[in-house]
Amino acid sequence: MVKILFLHPDLGIGGAERLVLDAALAFRRKGHEVAFYTNHHDASHCFAETRDGTFPVTVVGDWIPRSIFGRFKAACAYVRMVYAAVYLAWYVIPVEEPTLIFCDLISLCIPFLKMAQGPFRVVFYCHHPDKLLTSEGGILKKLYRAPLNWLEELTTSQADKVLVNSKYTARVYQDAFQNIKDIPDICYPSINTEFFKVTTPMPLKEVVPVGTDKIIFLSINRYERKKNLQLALRALEHLKHIISESDWNHVHLIMAGGFDPINLENMEHYIELTDLAAELDIEDKVTFMKSPKDVEKVSLLYNCKALVYTPSNEHFGIVPLEAMYYSKPVIAVNNGGPTETIVNDVTGFLCQPTTEAFATAMSKLILSPELGERLGEAGRKRFETKFSFDAFTEQLDGILTRERQVISEARAIEFEQKKRK
């Protein structure tokens, strides 16, 4: 058994949070001890594993502001993570003596973690280069981002091992960080199927006030503009014009998304989407849900006809895996991570990010119920062979084994050097 520490900026609800929790579950399945350190943790807005005591969670640096007058959010996030890393280096690592420190999202913490003495290795999981996620801006924005972008590349290179979530992200990583010569390892995320196995889905009417005769299309994504959730609404409106009235009467879209009340964009975009539904005159065809509980999410996946996944250039995408586990076809954009999880016309549909393309894919599933069943069954088989939690666990354990071997070799060299003296 070894000790593994996770350092993550905000243990809320999202794909990055689900990834680190699943990694922790995978390590624990192999008998290792795991603990989380984070800048922020809200028990009312988090996954169950960090709320029910599955893992110990220590909050460090939450008193540091997230922004300054609504600006400099990236700089503040960097400061918060550096503070947490220094805390670990001074007070935690010397006492806990971890073998592995697993961090993600903000690489600036890496050199500060390495201030601590001891034979540990730092693994950095790069979901996507942060420098590519920021929006375009004027000269002041570029001057502000320039040192942050330089620091991101410099500090990422100091990780002992870098993991990425897909071949797509690996290509983006190498293009973004051309001064880093080491090639990252691809570690496909998975999902905690043990939770799904022991969770009994609720009847749909106990989750949302929708009739049992409805054909449910489901969208699960955070309420963020980059997720392109408007595409699902516009596709639904277009669907009305290409299927019969009787079929249209049975169609319903559920939009379930991560919603943090302290996140201004979540609040603004939720209002934008509800306003758009009203403008398109499909209010009675859409149900909006904020931060569904885990059992509610499982119930939605179990009861839906298909998943509508709208982000473009998504780094990987966990939700399509969850839909595939429940034998549901996935309609997604033909770029980014979904091109590695979804096989077009075999487990779902990969479409151009247009209203017409998504609506056409939805209509195929309405007009041919057996097609949806066939695609869903193929999706479940693909999940089991390539993206199962067992495969994820073995991959992570292999990484840990190699890193422990490096530590052992370093200790042997150090011992020999001392002997010679």
Automatic annotation (TrEMBL):
GO CC, one annotated term: endoplasmic reticulum membrane
Reaction catalysed by this enzyme: an alpha-D-Man-(1->3)-beta-D-Man-(1->4)-beta-D-GlcNAc-(1->4)-alpha-D-GlcNAc-diphospho-di-trans,poly-cis-dolichol + GDP-alpha-D-mannose = an alpha-D-Man-(1->3)-[alpha-D-Man-(1->6)]-beta-D-Man-(1->4)-beta-D-GlcNAc-(1->4)-alpha-D-GlcNAc-diphospho-di-trans,poly-cis-dolichol + GDP + H(+); a beta-D-Man-(1->4)-beta-D-GlcNAc-(1->4)-alpha-D-GlcNAc-diphospho-di-trans,poly-cis-dolichol + GDP-alpha-D-mannose = an alpha-D-Man-(1->3)-beta-D-Man-(1->4)-beta-D-GlcNAc-(1->4)-alpha-D-GlcNAc-diphospho-di-trans,poly-cis-dolichol + GDP + H(+)
Subcellular location: Endoplasmic reticulum membrane
Domain Glycosyltransferase subfamily 4-like N-terminal residue range list: 13-193
Known pathway: Protein modification; protein glycosylation
Family annotation (InterPro entries): ALG2, Glyco_trans_1, Glyco_trans_4-like_N
Pfam families documented for this protein: Glyco_transf_4 (PF13439), Glycos_transf_1 (PF00534)
CDD domains on file: GT4_ALG2-like (cd03805)
Similarity comment: Belongs to the glycosyltransferase group 1 family.
Name of the featured protein: Alpha-1,3/1,6-mannosyltransferase ALG2
Natural source organism: Galleria mellonella (Greater wax moth)
